[in-house]
Design a protein that fits this description.
- This protein is mainly α.
- About 75% of the residues lie in helices and about 0% in strands.
- α1 runs antiparallel to α2, α1 runs antiparallel to α4 and α3 runs antiparallel to α4.
- The longest helix is centred in the middle third of the chain and has 27 residues.
- The radius of gyration is 15 Å and the shape is elongated.
- The protein starts with 7 loop residues before the first helix and ends in a 9-residue tail after the last helix.
């Protein structure tokens, strides 16, 4: 039986967090406890919240709550990356692969939020 680790959205979210981690190593040291920490935490939260919601899919309201939280963290990741570009720590080209992956994750989470019946187990 497939688990959360086998799901495409989880794999994409985990990959995104890894990409963010690698990119954020380039941020200046003075951002260690600010932007670097924020973007890493937000990006890692997407896969964690998805996994939590996956385990609670017997309860559609809880599932939707966790998918909504994951979607919020996904969007927050995009905002922090935009700040990194604005501060000239990285370029728009540097974040493009991450942004594309994040957009795909957002579409998947959005479908789960709008149509939980497709993803939730019956009680």
């Amino acid at each position: 039986m497939a688990g959360y680790e086998d799901m495409s959205v989880y794999k994409k979210a985990f990959r995104m967090a890894t990409m963010v981690f690698q990119l954020s190593k380039r941020f200046p040291k003075e951002e260690k406890y600010s932007l670097t920490d924020q973007v890493r935490r937000a990006s890692r939260a997407v896969s964690g919240l998805y996994a939590e919601g996956y385990r609670k899919r017997r309860y559609p309201a809880h599932f939707v709550l966790r998918m909504t939280d994951a979607d919020g963290e996904n969007t927050e990741t995009q905002v922090w990356l935009a700040h990194a570009v604005a501060c000239e720590y990285v370029t728009a080209e540097d974040i493009k692969p991450i942004r594309d992956l994040s957009d795909a994750i957002g579409r998947m989470l959005g479908d789960m939020i709008l149509h939980p019946e497709r993803y939730c187990k019956p009680k």
